[in-house]
Design brief:
Blueprint lengths: L2 E8 L21 H6 L9 E10 L6 H16 L5 E5 L5 H11 L6 E4 L12 H12 L9 E5 L2 E4 L4 E2 L8 E2 L7 E4 L2 E4 L24 E5 L7 H8 L4 E6 L7 H12 L3 E6 L14 H4 L2 E2 L5 H14 L3 H10 L1
Parallel strand pairs: 1-2, 1-3, 3-4, 4-5, 11-12, 12-13, 13-14
Antiparallel strand pairs: 5-6, 6-9, 7-8, 9-10
Amino acid sequence: MRRVRILATGGTIAGRGPSEIDLTYRPGSVPVEALIGSVRDLDRLAEVSGEQVAQIGSQDMNDARWLELASRANTLFARDEADGIVVTHGTDSMEETAYFLHLVVRSDRPVVLTGAMRPATSLSPDGPLNLFNAVAVAADPDARGRGAIVVLNDDLHSARDVTKAHTSDVQAFVSPGPGLLGTATYGRIRYFRRPSRRHTTESELSVEGLAELPRVDILYAHAGMSPDLVDASVARGARGLVVAGMGNGNVTHEALDALAEAVRKGVVVVRSTRLVSGDVGRNFEVEDDALGFVAADQLNPQKSRVLLKLCLRRSASPLAVQEAFYRY
């Protein structure tokens, strides 16, 4: 029997509302022991144990908790105390936590993130089946070497590709471009592919001994975008800026000038896009080489922020960061 450890952080999957049909609820109210106890037949899949890491809505996830989760996962695997890990998590920032763990966990054993769009006390909660499938994936030997996996609504997504695309639908997550990693139907798993970029054991990125991560801000581009927010972020100590640009990572000329000035001050600027899919190409419409910018390639703004935080620990060279965006 394989050993699966559940690291619970709260979220809607552990939410509690005043009634079965009430729209309001408090995330993270149900402890991990109750979550495990609410899912029948988990013991048929694995020897399951749990620990409470946090009890928050994922809008309150932060760098310190990322570092804690990564450290705990690495410790459990290094000590051979788990064959797989499931992280229960709110859906709002799940893709960011998943990608962070995808880059810094030092094992080929599976790390699986799951959550829910409906609270545990809902008339028809989606959390129990999501957790059942997540444990099945974490216990599956074929999940090894696939990096961090997000399991929701019978779908398996690679942490690098997944994004939340709907505010309330149970089919809230998609993987634009590369598509699904696989599917899980009542614990029966099919895989379609493996991630194509480096992760986990192939990653050169590390948080070992790290107490904090550098500040990186995301700036949302729009018609008439002012340079003021660029200046404010730099003044507040941001070491990196990610632009959720229009189209292929574009901003107004005024904002572009401010970003170029930020680069001259040593800030690393990454151009991503506010669109749900598509690559941001280097030197397509913006002269990245001349201005010292980094093109996000396939990463959305929130994933770009995660990668840039980790890159800045190693190098603030725009060329080195650009290579990392092609590698990861």
